[in-house]
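Subject: mismatched residue count in predicted assembly?

I count 834 residues in my input, but I want to confirm that the predicted structure covers every chain. Input:
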Amino acid sequence: MSDLQLELEILRYDPEQDQEPRFQTYSVPCQEEWVVLDAINYVKDHIDSTLSYRWSCHMAVCGSCGMMIDGEPKLACKAFVRDYVNKTVRIEPLANFPIERDLVSVLDDFMNKLRRVKPYLIRKEEKPLSEGEYRQTPAELNKYKQYTLCINCLCCYAACPQYALIPEFIGPAALTMAHRYNQDSRDQGRAQREEETASHEGVWDCAFADACSLVCPKHVDPASALQQMKITSTVDWYLEHLGMGGKKS
Amino acid sequence: METIKTDVAIVGAGGAGLRAAIAIAEARPDLKVALISKVYPMRSHTCAAEGGAAGVIKPDDSLELHFNDTVGGGDWLCDQDVVDYFVREAAKELTQLEHWGCPWSREPDGSVGVRPFGGMKIKRTWFAADKSGFHILHTLFQTTLKYPSIERFDEYFTTDLLVVDGRCQGVVAIEMSSGRIFQFQAKSVIVATGGAGRIFPFTTNGAVKTGDGSAMAYRAGIPLKDMEFVQYHPTGLPSTGILLTEGCRGEGGVLRNKDGYRYLQDYGMGPETPLGKPVLKTMELGPRDRLSQAFWHEQQKGNTIPTKFGDCVYLDMTHLGEKHIDERLPLVRDLSISYSGVDPVTEQVPIRPVVHYCMGGIHTNIEAETPMPGLYAVGECACGSLNGANRLGSNSLTELLVFGKKAAQNAMEFAGGGNKTNESAVSEQAEQAQKRITELFDKSGGGETISGLRKEMMDSLEKGAGIYRTEQTLKESCATISQLRKRYAGIELHDKSNVYNTDLFQALELRNMLDLAQTVAEGALARKESRGSHQRLDFVDRDDENFLKHTLAYHQGEETPRIEYLDVIITKSQPGVRDYSGGGK
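Triage response: the counts match. Full output below for your records.
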């Protein structure tokens, strides 16, 4: 027995057949505990097996099912159907990305940008494994921990007004990941990353609209990361150009 | 068909595949690595592991204790040479991850912290809050971005191994964005595609976990080992199967029945331990198989709580305090509130056992080698017999690393061994694979649906091959799955597009799952004893005389698999009694 009925208006687009995206409406009997992803799975399993979308973990950690739900970028597995009763819910692929098929976006741009910011620990010298771990106090961990929580769902890019205007902008998630490593007490790679992050397409394209932080399902707060990076990169610039000691490597 | 030539092809880009890729890139930057996955690496299900990874580092711990916990936890079905190697390499690999930036939780002095886990006699589980797998996966994925020799093929669905002259020489994969079919010619291949929890209806496993690599190897003639051993994790959220980590109990959470009684003391895991003072290897820190079996008995006695989503017991963490829960178990709190509407800080959380992990998989040895030259397997898709009949929590994340590296070392050595690819024979085989895919595409009529067959398979396994099994229930499952494999011929793809055709991928996944489901049910029917996660109501005792053996299931086309047995490797621990009564102090 279903508890409530949901009308889903889902964007459909198959580049082999469609000139442009269209919408198709499905009426789905839902249980009140369901998330929107459950309703979409119902469509796939019982109404229309041609619908394409990405999903996996159903617990908001794999980041696959970011999509526009009623105009907002959300994880379909963490958007509850009870919040959309008695209305038609429009489901679209993430804004600001090309559509590959139906709800599937092309993510190449993000994957390339992520690589550019060098999101890995950089050290001048590696300590041998036999000497054990690098020491890092809980306070040092807390300095960057929040920024490690990004699941790459890319809701922040879909929300970002600057990314919509300037496709070259490296964008919130990738820059936040650079900041995460910059803030890690074990890392010595900030100068290398600043070649990208402090460049024209880096943090200075951010207009601090805060939209990224508002939609982030993991409360990573990319906007704060980017503002901190602006300050750091300004200080680094002055230190370098006014000869006040070398910049932190 | 397009051809890509590489040195080592790795299928699967979760924890195991990524670790293997890095090992090759570090040691042999001259070798080309093709990292092929049906999802982007960070979507792999390693991300959902919560509790942590085991490795001996503290002064009160020892390799011998980790060995004994693992072998006893696995009810002596572990290969002891494998366990021995594993416990020796574990801490090195976890330290290596630390050096790559993994944000492990720390002690006040800055050293890595460890937490208690089920079935472990000493605290030895490294953790990153309750998002350990997530952090391991992202650390590994991001680290791979350093290495130009690793070429990723994200969203390529691998369908077949290419085997010529008895040697694995590549794979066939579909580029999901275009439908184009590629042959990857490789000097060696590592399969790291994860488990197959999706063959059951109620599972912690994500949608991707359909056992593709295991099924592919099985059809290529590699036996699947110990497939009847399927782990139920005792604490899943009832409506979704979302996991609440064993760390909940490690941190002091307790299980209660409908009367508030801590029932585990009635099932050989007592005496009751004081609230807030968990005792290792006792009560709630018993192993997962025992805890899930205790639930089943409570259910038979009518001591569980009926809910809309099945019978439950309570996981009580209310005595831990908000600060501790927020620091150590933030994801658990978030998941409980979001998906069950229960805040563990103030309320008991209804939970029930949920299918979590396949101990069985592609038959491998201590070298992560399969019986086929050039083919290696690692992670949940493989069965290197580290975990025996029941895996201990926090051993699998470490396993990915230790044997991911091992598989890589052997695969690169093999790749450098001067074997020539038999290009024409490989291409011919790839053409045949392509033809099968095209036929599936073009087939019409039949009247079966993918979702319909899938549901029947899941329900049949749950009913017949669940926590407790009998000859009767297993025979029904075997008959049903055999029928479903035949009925599979009656499915039809309604989606004819070449672009991201999930109708096609689900059809391929269903075929894989049906093959694996059959090995689970047939293996369970043939194993007339109870051991670890495999419990028979008609054969309640462990039978070391007849079944201290691994099951090997061989693919026989349309027929049921041929079952053979292989001796367990015992080096220093003779089968004994699994003691979780707090007596083993």
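Residues 234-354 of chain B form a domain with the Flavocytochrome C3; Chain A, domain 1 fold (CATH 3.90.700.10). Marking this ticket as 'not a bug'.
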